[in-house]
Amino acid sequence: MLLYNRGTVSAAEGMIVYFMQSKKVITIGENSGGYIGYGNVMTSQTPCGQFTMRSTTTKYFEKSKFEYIGIEPEYKASKNEDWVLLAEKLINNN
Predict the structure, then answer these.
(1) Pairing of strands 41-45, 52-56
(2) Torsion angle of the four alpha carbons 63, 65, 70, 71, in this order, in degrees rounded to the nearest 10
(3) Using one digit for the tens of pLDDT, what is the confidence trace for 34-70?
(4) Are the beta carbons of 46 and 53 closer than 8 angstroms?
(5) How many CB atoms lie within 10 A of CB 67?
(6) Among 17, 37, 57, 75, which is most buried by a count of CB atoms within 10 Å?
(7) 63 and 35 in contact (C-beta within 8 Å)?
(8) What is the fold of 2-93?
């Protein structure tokens, strides 16, 4: 079980994508934050020291589809719902 919400961003979203490759993982919650690339910005100086360059760490085009909208879970859960209870139900039904 993997539970996440809009507060799950950046590198954590990269982990969601990684975990979702397994058929054993069930995702529950709401869409993640949608900052899979742009929340992870790296900075470097040019050798002369006069310029600063910034780039995102996302290198894979297929991950860009999650920017701004987030990663949708298999099972949506509302903020008013007990997510742990929902996870227990799903485990018992499988």
Answers:
(1) antiparallel
(2) -60
(3) 988 766 677 889 899 899 987 776 666 667 788 889 9
(4) yes
(5) 16
(6) 37
(7) no
(8) 2-enoyl-CoA Hydratase; Chain A, domain 1 (3.90.226)
